[in-house]
């Protein structure tokens, strides 16, 4: 029964019922977390809380509390809390009461025991027994508030000390008095306790008004809310079913209560966003689901602001929505920042895209620059009809009268005009070179231009020049390649420098004296019986420079197509490497040759030697090539002759002050830019017309008339002669196609292959050696005749054995042209338009020859050839069927075996390839083709092909 | 006077042809084409060339259509068109058109859109030039034939001097 009083009981007791706020409100509500107020608390005291913004429609609040689930529930919680607290207090008081009554009982029991003891143990107790106050110390533990625990209060059993002798009367008297005192004290204590209890009960009653406590709680919560919200840019509100405000909290109120409560948004203020906000609230109300939205307001009331609005519906107990809670937070700055960020990001993205685009553009520009450059170089070198030579290996030449000095001068002048270096351009035409010769001036000029521009390209300082002089006709025949056999039989070896100039001069003078106009020279002219009359002069032309030169090992490849000395050179100097190849071919086609000698780092000299017919000239009457000459005739009367014969031209670099040297001063005056330009454009025509008149219009007439009477100047008769030849040949054979251009463009095309040579070379070789030009011309004429006869009366007898030819080409134009050519060659052809059709055609017909385009839709020529070859080898069309060709296999009885056998003979298949395309000859052969002809198809290659592959 | 005008027209034709050759607009193949014209097909050249124009305009339209579509350029198809164009151009000897086709095709093989567009423009330019000049040529020829009294060229294959 020991009573252990805890020393810290004060604090322990202090806790009891101390909080104004229900401790377990967390469990119940969880909406607020409020600090318990201590002695030093209420920090809110120091905070001024502005309560004005809080505008409440209390009636509505009551309604809400009464009718809405939430309000009800909150109220219930509060009450439950209070009840719990009170119960707890009652319980504690009761416990205390129990304790006290227990103590009282014990005390009484003790008293009885003492009395009894004294009765039976008289001697046992002496006066040394002293009374001890049991409550002395314990009183202070009794508190005015009901103690929560008064556990066991133990009274110590102490002996009463009495001084009197034991068991004496005095002793007993003393003892009785002492006990009396103890009893009194005990009673007193009991009374105190009872009072205390009374007081506690009173206290309890006094303090525990639930309403008071609740309002205190609410007030605190309210205070906290205000404290938290006082500076927040938020608006909190409640609106009823009709969206009329019933409560609003707005820290920055701009309107009074009467302006807001009971009104809707649209009634309160107007402007952008108001309607939207109201509609949004209504939507939430209708849908019954909370939602958030950002709305930008633009109102007179508070300007432009963006709010993030949260709206949740409020339900009645019956589950109906009876209003919305609304909370808005101003996020204008954030929105602005966000928009700014988005804008920045967008700008960055745009910037990046632009950058990418720019890079792409740069790339594309670089590429197109390259392409442009390539195109420019290409166009420089192949724009002119020169490429015709490369493409077809066939060309026709013109015979026109021209003045070599003029040509040299023009070429140099043109080069000087576009010169971008400090180079001296010079030309030197030997005196023995005739004033006028006959040849294909256009091409000669092109060759010369090409060589000069090449020389300029590779020369950085010094000079570039042209030397022209007459040489002895080459006596040795150089035979170069069977391809050019027919025309190149008279090709001469490079001649020695020790030309017999005198000889040349003699020839020249003879020519001039006798006014012999017709030379055998240009090969396309068919002079047959005029050996005695014609005069040929071989003129050598050196184009020299002081440039970088050509390494010795590079010289052999120099004239190959698309070859330059080295990759470095190509990079540094550009160009396609086509120019020299064309020049060489051109020179050789004209019966001459082109050579080069070079010392590296010192310069190169390109030399070509060509035969020209000598034209007779009457200086006085013959009209100069340019109109300007006649225009200036009066002024330059004297200079005219000089001009014709002076053969030295020097074009100094322009920076030296004078455009041209004094030597050529007269020339400069004459060659005004206009006249020069005119000459360039029309020179061909003028030279061509051969008319002595300076007037173009009348020239033709005169020439005609002259020809008619056969008494005109020699030039005219020369022309007549050619025409006669030509026409007679045509009359005979009717195979040389003609146009109204005959005699002007001389459309007769020279063979470039060995075909014709086969016919003629044997019988004529010797003649050629002996008689050179004439013999050559003879041979050629013969060639034409035989050719014509062969085409007109084909080797294959007409009738059943007429060869069947199949053309496979998808290009309409090509088909038309090829068909027409074949017609003229005496063949009718079948045409199909792709590989698959070709396979079908071959399957159902016996062809003797197939001309197959390579690039075609559906099935290309290579595959078609493969399939045909596969059939020829295996006798079955399986591969073709596998490849998707719709083959109709003949029934066994419809076709005889022999016929099938026959079909299986290998058909010659000739590919038609375009050089510009990546169709290689190897590929054609690899796929089973027998040969190829390059497009565009010409008479020559077609004829050759037919001769080779048709029996 | 008739003869005079015939000859003058012929001179005009020759001058024009010479110019076209000199500029590289036409090459030798055009002469091959002229050789194919005879009694049996007196208008062969202009027939072929007209078909060429017809086809080429179709091809140019297609090419432009392919290139205008910014989303997608079918370079393979473009290559097929260009092969056609190249083939027919070289068949009639339209040298410059053909050369531009070559460059165009190179650009299309590299999927170089900008290059293709440039080439297309150049091609259209060259094509128009060619067409105008050939029309001019045919017009002169027609006048000449009229002036010559419905005589076709091959009947006048006698030397220039009547």
UniProtKB/TrEMBL annotation, chain A:
| Signal peptide from the UniProt entry | none
Q: Known PROSITE patterns for this protein?
A: HIS_KIN, RESPONSE_REGULATORY
Domain called Response regulatory: residue spans: 804-950
Q: Which UniProt keywords apply?
A: Coiled coil, Kinase, Phosphoprotein, Transferase
List the biased-composition ranges (Basic and acidic residues): 502-515
- InterPro entries documented for this protein: CheY-like_superfamily, HATPase_C_sf, HATPase_dom, His_kinase_dom, HisK_dim/P_dom, Sig_transdc_His_kin-like_C, Sig_transdc_resp-reg_receiver
User: Catalyzes what?
Assistant: ATP + protein L-histidine = ADP + protein N-phospho-L-histidine
> What EC number(s) does its UniProt record assign?
2.7.13.3
Write down the SUPFAM superfamilies for this protein, in alphabetical order.
ATPase domain of HSP90 chaperone/DNA topoisomerase II/histidine kinase, CheY-like
Q: Which residues form a coiled coil?
A: 90-117, 187-214
Q: Which SMART domains does the protein's record reference?
A: HATPase_c (SM00387), REC (SM00448)
What name does this protein carry?
A: histidine kinase
From TrEMBL, chain B:
Domain HPt, first and last residues per copy: 47-130
- Where is this protein found? Cytoplasm, Cytosol; Nucleus
Major location (coarse): cytoplasm
> InterPro entries from the entry?
AHP1-5/YPD1, HPT_dom_sf, Sig_transdc_His_kin_Hpt_dom
Which Pfam family, just one, is annotated for this protein? Hpt
Could you list this entry's UniProt keywords, alphabetically sorted. Answer: Cytokinin signaling pathway, Two-component regulatory system
Superkingdom field: Eukaryota
Domains: what does the record tell us?
Histidine-containing phosphotransfer domain (HPt) contains an active histidine that mediates the phosphotransfer.
Q: What does this protein do?
A: Functions as a two-component phosphorelay mediators between cytokinin sensor histidine kinases and response regulators (B-type ARRs). Plays an important role in propagating cytokinin signal transduction.
PANTHER family, per the entry: PHOSPHORELAY INTERMEDIATE PROTEIN YPD1, PSEUDO HISTIDINE-CONTAINING PHOSPHOTRANSFER PROTEIN 6
What name does this protein carry? Histidine-containing phosphotransfer protein
In which organism is this protein found?
A: Rehmannia glutinosa (Chinese foxglove)
């Amino acid at each position: 029964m020991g009573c252990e009083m805890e020393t810290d009981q004060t604090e322990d007791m202090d806790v009891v019922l101390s909080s104004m706020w229900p401790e377990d409100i967390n469990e119940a509500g969880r909406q607020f977390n409020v600090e318990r107020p201590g002695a030093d608390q209420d920090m809110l005291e120091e905070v001024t809380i502005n309560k004005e913004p809080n505008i409440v429609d209390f009636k509505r609040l009551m309604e809400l509390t009464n009718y809405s689930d939430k309000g009800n529930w909150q109220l219930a919680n509060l009450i439950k809390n209070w009840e719990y607290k009170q119960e707890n207090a009652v319980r504690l008081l009761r416990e205390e009461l129990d304790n006290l009554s227990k103590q009282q009982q014990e005390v009484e029991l003790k008293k009885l025991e003492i009395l009894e003891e004294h009765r039976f143990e008289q001697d046992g107790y002496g006066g040394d027994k002293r009374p001890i106050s049991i409550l002395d110390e314990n009183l202070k533990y009794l508190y005015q508030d009901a103690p929560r625990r008064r556990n066991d209060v133990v009274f110590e059993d102490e002996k009463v000390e009495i001084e009197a002798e034991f068991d004496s009367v005095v002793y007993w008297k003393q003892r009785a008095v002492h006990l009396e005192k103890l009893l009194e004290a005990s009673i007193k204590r009991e009374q105190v306790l009872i009072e205390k209890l009374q007081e506690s009960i009173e206290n309890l009653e006094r303090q525990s008004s639930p309403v008071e406590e609740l309002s205190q709680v609410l007030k605190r919560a309210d205070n906290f809310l205000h404290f938290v919200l006082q500076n927040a840019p938020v608006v909190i509100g409640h609106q009823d079913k009709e969206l009329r405000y019933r409560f609003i909290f707005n820290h920055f109120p701009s309107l009074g209560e009467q302006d807001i409560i009971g009104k809707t948004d649209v009634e309160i203020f107007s402007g952008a966003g108001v309607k939207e906000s109201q509609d949004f609230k209504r939507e939430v109300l209708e849908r019954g689901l909370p939602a958030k939205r950002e709305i930008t307001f633009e109102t007179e009331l508070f300007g432009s602001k963006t709010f993030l609005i949260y709206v949740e519906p409020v339900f009645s107990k019956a589950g109906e929505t009876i209003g919305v809670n609304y909370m808005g937070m101003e996020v204008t700055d954030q929105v602005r920042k966000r928009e700014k960020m988005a804008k920045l990001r967008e700008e960055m993205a745009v910037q990046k895209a632009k950058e990418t685009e720019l890079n792409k553009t740069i790339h594309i520009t670089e590429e197109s620059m390259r392409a442009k450059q390539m195109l420019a170089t290409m166009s420089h070198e192949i724009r002119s009809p020169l490429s015709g030579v490369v493409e077809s290996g066939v060309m026709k030449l013109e015979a026109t009268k021209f003045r070599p000095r003029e040509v040299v001068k023009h070429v140099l002048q043109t080069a000087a005009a576009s010169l971008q270096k400090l180079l001296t351009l010079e030309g030197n035409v030997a005196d023995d070179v005739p004033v006028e010769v006959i040849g294909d001036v256009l091409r000669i000029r092109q060759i010369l231009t090409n060589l000069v521009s090449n020389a300029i390209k590779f020369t950085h300082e010094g000079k570039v020049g042209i030397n022209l002089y007459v040489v002895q006709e080459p006596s040795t025949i150089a035979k170069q390649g069977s391809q050019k056999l027919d025309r190149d039989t008279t090709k001469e070896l490079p001649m020695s420098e020790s030309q017999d100039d005198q000889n040349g001069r003699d020839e020249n003078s003879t020519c001039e004296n006798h006014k012999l106009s017709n030379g055998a020279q240009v090969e396309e002219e068919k002079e047959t019986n005029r050996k005695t009359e014609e005069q040929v002069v071989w003129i050598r032309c050196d184009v020299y420079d002081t440039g970088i030169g050509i390494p010795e090992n590079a010289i052999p490849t120099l004239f190959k197509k698309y070859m330059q000395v080295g990759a470095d050179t190509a990079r540094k100097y550009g160009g396609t490497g086509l120019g020299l190849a064309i020049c060489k071919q051109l020179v050789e086609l004209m019966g001459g040759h082109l050579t080069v000698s070079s010392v590296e780092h010192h310069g190169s000299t390109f030399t070509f030697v060509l035969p020209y017919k000598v034209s007779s000239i009457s200086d006085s009457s013959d009209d100069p090539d340019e109109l300007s000459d006649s225009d200036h005739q009066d002024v330059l009367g004297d200079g005219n002759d000089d001009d014709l014969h002076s053969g030295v031209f020097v074009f100094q670099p322009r920076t030296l002050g004078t455009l041209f040297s004094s030597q050529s001063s007269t020339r400069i005056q004459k060659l005004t830019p206009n006249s020069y330009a005119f000459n360039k454009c029309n020179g061909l025509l003028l030279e061509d017309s051969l008319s002595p008149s300076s007037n173009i219009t009348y020239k033709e007439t005169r020439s005609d008339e002259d020809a008619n009477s056969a008494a005109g100047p020699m030039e005219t008769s020369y022309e007549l002669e050619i025409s006669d030849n030509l026409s007679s040949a045509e009359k005979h054979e009717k195979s040389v196609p003609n146009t109204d251009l005959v005699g002007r463009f001389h459309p007769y095309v020279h063979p470039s292959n060995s075909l014709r040579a086969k016919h003629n070379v044997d019988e004529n070789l010797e003649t050629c050696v002996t008689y050179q030009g004439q013999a050559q011309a003879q041979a050629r004429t013969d060639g034409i005749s035989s050719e014509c006869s062969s085409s007109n009366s084909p080797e294959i007898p007409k009738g059943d054995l007429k060869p069947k030819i199949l053309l496979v080409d998808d290009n309409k134009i090509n088909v038309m042209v090829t068909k027409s050519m074949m017609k003229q060659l005496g063949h009718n052809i079948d045409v199909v338009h792709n590989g698959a059709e070709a396979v079908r055609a071959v399957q159902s017909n016996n062809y003797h020859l197939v001309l197959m385009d390579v690039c075609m839709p559906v099935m290309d020529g290579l595959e078609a050839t493969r399939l045909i070859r596969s059939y020829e080898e295996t006798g079955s069309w399986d591969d073709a069927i596998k490849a998707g060709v719709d083959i109709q296999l003949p029934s066994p009885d419809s076709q005889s075996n022999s016929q099938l056998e026959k079909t299986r003979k290998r058909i010659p298949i000739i590919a038609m390839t375009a050089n510009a395309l990546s169709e290689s000859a190897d590929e054609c052969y690899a796929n089973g083709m027998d040969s190829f002809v390059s497009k565009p198809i010409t008479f020559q290659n077609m004829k050759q092909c037919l001769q080779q592959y048709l029996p | 006077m008739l003869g005079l005008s015939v000859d003058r027209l012929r001179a005009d034709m020759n001058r024009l042809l010479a110019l076209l050759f000199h500029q590289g607009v036409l090459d030798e193949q055009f002469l091959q084409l002229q050789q194919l014209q005879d009694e049996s097909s007196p208008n062969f050249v202009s027939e072929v060339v007209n078909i060429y124009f017809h086809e080429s305009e179709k091809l140019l339209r297609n090419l432009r259509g392919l290139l205008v579509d910014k989303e997608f350029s079918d370079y393979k198809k473009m290559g097929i068109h260009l092969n056609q164009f190249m083939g027919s151009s070289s068949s009639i000897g339209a040298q410059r058109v053909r050369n531009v086709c070559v460059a165009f095709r190179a650009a299309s093989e590299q999927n170089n859109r900008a290059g293709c567009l440039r080439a297309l423009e150049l091609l259209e330019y060259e094509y128009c030039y060619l067409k105008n000049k050939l029309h001019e040529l045919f017009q002169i020829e027609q006048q000449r034939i009229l002036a010559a009294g419905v005589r076709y060229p091959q009947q006048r294959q006698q030397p220039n001097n009547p």
